[in-house]
């Protein structure tokens, strides 16, 4: 994208943000319990975790004049529509109901998998892609390919050779590439000349789609990239033949045959991924990436594997194709530029780390001049970025790189682990004076600085209100997406000044979240404490405590913003609990040492932090009854919950564990080996971190919940733990969810699941 000056726009009256009340410190309530608590479980299910009606997937045209996005019509309508913001207002571009594609009942399997990997909660139009100038957008509905122009006119269907997955137009908008039946094909936007560019050589080969480990654990959801002139495509070839076949059945429907999935469990073979340049003229050139990292520079460990087995990122910009690869042990990452004519590569940079090289979303990237933007870890452990010779300031933890406009680079970063702000690196900005200066965005204060010594340009914050922010950029336009104590909002800035808002149509939770944001214990654990709105501290009543963490890598909950989990926490609080949500070691936003503290032990440090947060909160709030403590969670949070009652029954008296990865050998290679190494070389790490071997220790009530169709944390995790508990004579409760994946979306299931959890926890603590 290149910078340009957009046409002037008149101010637009701001659209209302989704209404969520400002947090209050935990204070005196009415002293009287309400006759009935609002039905948060039903609202949570009906609104898909209050995500419906929230705009997302923004694309800003290079001139900044057009903004495309996906949003449903309301907070309860699950069907996504494609919209355009420009000329001061919103305009509907495509409505699935008008195109006969509002029903997702006949999705291609590859599309269903894509949505599961990306945690898509809606139906209809859930993804789209545009040409270079955002004049043409393409999307699929039930495998049918559709196109629409942003300057007006109705969408039209583009005939394809089979159900289309992940369509992407050529930069000039004349062609559309798509994947069907494992083949990468291209068709004219008018439906003419549909032809194959790469055809799978066997049933286990796929072109143009990301394999499981890339999509689930690396954050790479794409498998091909257009050349800027539209005459070739950089495409990943995935050979899944070495990967183990797993069979996932739904016992509630015995007539349906099991799904066969390729799952690379820890210590087993990965898919073989190679990268090729495929021309529209039929020319095909393999990219000759190095086979392994240099032994002299690669850090050694208890387990060392220098093979460049993972393709973590790729792209094609004005300076040619580039590919980032990572070794199997994840201690070296290499970025290489490729010659599209010969496939020869030259190194653009290498990164090493004795634990693992962290992958920062949005990197690698190149600016208009070709300056690389890469992830970087400072000497103080800061997760930073390097733009050429410039490095983001020490202590500023980079979350994601959002994009580049000319030489300016936008990214999100945390000065405080409870926030995430949008930042800008401008190499041509004048050096700032001493001390903090004003931020250019929404009027809040910000920090300016030149980064580490030896760097050029200025790093500065865009906006300033406390919260969790991200953005999409193009030209002089920034679409600022904000989640704060006040709710969710989307502001459009041009030249740093607000020119309008994109409406957020999400429903507000039926209870008002009221949490105290705490910093607890010697490690400064960030936490939220929810007490009942009716609770009167002067009454002297002690409240049972419910911990509701995620607590693992990749996700923070205790931020200066409310999320759907805040409404759930307050709902439990209104039923008489003091609910504590704490982020411990391993969670992002606090630097390398904080993240790698869980290397070799997925459970111990994280569980200790939950115990420390609980005790520190109880010292500050005497209402917390340490004689009645429960814990609940999902995914890693479920693992933490089950581990809590197994390892610390002296602290935790009941637990609900949802979709818990109880046997660490059953999770995928890239994610699990990052923390625990190879199971055959470091078996003690897996033994220490798994729950099945300690099932005999259970002495507290435990409910296990799992979706039977989960292909991320498969139900075998729960079944193996349950079998071990049964063999040890330990009573427990199992709640299977037929047809549910890792994302439970069925309204009746979500609503009743939470009520059953409440019943179980209440009766367990009472007993």
Question: What would you note in describing this structure?
Answer:
- This protein is of the alpha+beta class.
- Among the domains are: 51-199, Neuraminidase; 515-766, Rossmann fold.
- It has eleven helices and 47 strands.
- An eight-stranded mixed beta sheet has the order 40-41-43-42-44-45-46-47. Strands 1, 2, 3, 4 and 5 form a five-stranded mixed beta sheet that branches. Strands 14, 15, 16, 19 and 20 form a five-stranded antiparallel beta sheet that branches.
- A hairpin with a 6-residue loop joins strand 1 and strand 2.
- The model is unreliable at 1-24 and 434-447 (pLDDT under 50).
In short:
The chain is of the alpha+beta class and 767 residues long. The chain is built from 11 helices and 47 strands.
């Amino acid at each position: 994208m290149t910078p340009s000056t957009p046409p002037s726009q008149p101010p637009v009256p701001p659209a209302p943000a989704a209404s969520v009340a400002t947090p209050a410190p935990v204070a005196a309530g009415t002293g009287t319990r309400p006759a009935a608590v609002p039905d948060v479980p039903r609202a949570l299910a009906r609104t898909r975790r209050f995500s419906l009606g929230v705009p997302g997937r923004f694309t800003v045209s290079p001139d900044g004049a057009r903004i495309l996005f996906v949003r449903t019509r309301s907070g309860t309508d699950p069907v996504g529509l494609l919209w355009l913001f420009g000329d001061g207002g919103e305009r509907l571009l495509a409505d699935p109901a008008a195109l006969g594609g509002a029903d997702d009942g006949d999705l291609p399997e590859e599309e269903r998998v894509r949505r599961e990997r990306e945690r898509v909660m809606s139906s209809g139009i859930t993804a789209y892609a545009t040409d270079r100038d955002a004049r043409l957008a393409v999307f699929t509905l039930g495998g049918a390919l559709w196109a629409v122009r942003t300057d007006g006119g109705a969408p039209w269907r583009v005939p394809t050779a089979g159900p289309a997955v992940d369509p992407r137009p050529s930069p000039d908008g004349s062609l559309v590439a798509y994947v069907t039946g494992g083949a990468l094909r291209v068709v004219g936007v008018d439906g003419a000349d549909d032809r194959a560019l790469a055809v799978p050589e066997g049933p286990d080969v796929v072109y143009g789609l990301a394999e499981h480990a890339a999509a689930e654990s690396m954050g790479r959801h794409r498998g091909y990239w257009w050349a800027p002139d539209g005459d070739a495509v950089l495409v990943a070839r995935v050979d899944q033949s070495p990967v183990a076949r797993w069979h996932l059945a739904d016992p509630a429907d015995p007539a349906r045959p099991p799904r066969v999935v390729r799952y690379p469990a820890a210590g087993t073979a990965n898919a073989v991924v190679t990268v090729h340049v495929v021309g529209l003229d039929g020319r095909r050139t393999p990219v000759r990436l190095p086979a392994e990292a240099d032994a002299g520079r690669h850090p050694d460990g208890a387990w060392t594997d220098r093979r460049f087995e993972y393709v973590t990122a790729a792209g094609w910009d004005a300076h040619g194709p580039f590919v980032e690869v990572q070794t199997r042990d994840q201690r070296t990452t290499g970025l290489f530029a490729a010659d599209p004519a010969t496939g020869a590569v030259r190194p653009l940079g290498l990164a090493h780390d004795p634990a693992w090289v962290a992958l920062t979303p949005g990197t690698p990237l190149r600016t208009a001049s070709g300056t690389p933007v890469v992830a970087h870890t400072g000497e103080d452990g800061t997760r930073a970025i390097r733009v050429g010779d410039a490095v983001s300031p020490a202590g500023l933890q980079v979350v994601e790189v959002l994009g580049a406009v000319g030489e300016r680079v936008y990214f999100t970063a945390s000065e405080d682990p409870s926030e995430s702000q949008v930042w800008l690196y401008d190499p041509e900005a004048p050096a700032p004076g001493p001390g903090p200066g004003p931020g250019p965005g929404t009027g809040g204060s910000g920090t300016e600085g030149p980064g580490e010594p030896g760097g050029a340009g200025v790093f500065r914050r865009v906006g300033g209100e406390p919260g969790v922010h991200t953005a999409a950029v193009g030209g002089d336009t920034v679409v600022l997406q904000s989640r704060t104590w006040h709710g969710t909002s989307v502001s459009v800035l041009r030249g740093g000044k607000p020119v309008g808002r994109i409406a957020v149509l999400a429903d507000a939770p039926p209870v008002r979240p009221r949490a105290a944001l705490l910093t607890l214990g010697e490690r400064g654990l960030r936490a939220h404490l929810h007490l009942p709105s009716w609770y009167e501290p002067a009454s002297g009543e002690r409240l049972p405590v419910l911990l509701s963490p995620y607590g693992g890598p990749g996700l923070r909950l205790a931020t200066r913003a409310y999320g759907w989990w805040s409404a759930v926490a307050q709902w439990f609080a209104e039923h008489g609990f003091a609910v504590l949500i704490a982020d411990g070691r391993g969670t992002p936003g606090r630097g390398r040492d904080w993240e790698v503290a869980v290397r070799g032990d997925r459970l111990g440090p994280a569980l200790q932090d939950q115990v420390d947060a609980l005790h520190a909160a109880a010292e500050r709030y005497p209402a917390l009854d340490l004689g009645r403590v429960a814990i609940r969670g999902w995914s890693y949070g479920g693992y933490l919950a089950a581990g809590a009652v197994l390892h610390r029954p002296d602290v935790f008296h009941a637990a609900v564990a949802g979709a818990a990865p109880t046997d660490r050998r059953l999770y995928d290679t890239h994610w699990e080996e990052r923390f625990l190494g190879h199971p055959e070389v470091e078996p003690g790490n897996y033994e220490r971190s798994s729950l099945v071997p300690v099932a005999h220790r259970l002495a507290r009530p435990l409910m296990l919940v799992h979706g039977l169709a989960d292909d991320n944390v498969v139900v075998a995790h729960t079944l193996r733990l349950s079998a071990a508990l049964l063999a040890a004579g330990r009573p427990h409760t199992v709640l299977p969810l037929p047809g549910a994946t890792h994302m439970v979306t069925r309204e009746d299931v979500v609503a009743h699941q939470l009520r059953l959890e409440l019943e179980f926890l209440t009766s367990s603590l009472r007993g």
